[in-house]
Every structure is written in C-alpha cells, then in structure tokens.
Amino acid sequence: xxxxxxxxxxxxxxxxxxxxxxxxxxxxxxxxxxxxxxxxxxxxxxxxxxxxxxxxxxxxxxxxxxxxxxxxxxxxxxxxxxxxxxx
Length: 87
Description:
Layout: E1 2-4, E2 12-17, E3 20-25, E4 43-51, E5 54-63, E6 71-77, E7 80-86
Parallel strand pairs: 1-6
Antiparallel strand pairs: 2-3, 2-4, 4-5, 6-7
C-alpha cells in the first residue's frame, strides 16, 4: 500500500526493490503485490511517481522482508518514502 502525502494526485508509480521493478496504477489508494528479490536483504528502494505527465523519483527506506506474514506500506513524502510494516 502507498499512502500519498505528496499533495498531488498519483496516476501510477514504479517501485524498484533491488533489481526488481513493479508498476502500479491508480486511482488512489494505490496498492498491489510488488516483485522483490529472494535473497541478499536489505535492498534499496526507488519509487518513481507519475502525476499528470510529470514524474518524481523518491528514495525509500530499504526493504528487508521476503515472505513476511503481514502487509507493507510506503508513505510517500517529498523528502522520501517511509516504510512501515503492518501485521
């Protein structure tokens, strides 16, 4: 799940965890399963946000979970994306 605190609408986003990228489409709230590597954790996270023809690249907290039992959230902020594990 992605919580939008960017103060603009999100059309879609691409999240890269390590060497795996997943594209998710709006409307908000944007959520879905993402592709993640199977080993060598933690992995860097980059999120590209597409909004009305513009794109912003946001660095996120590293992702350190493979096959975890729970859900995950990134809170999108202008200064970066904050990760939160939700069980």
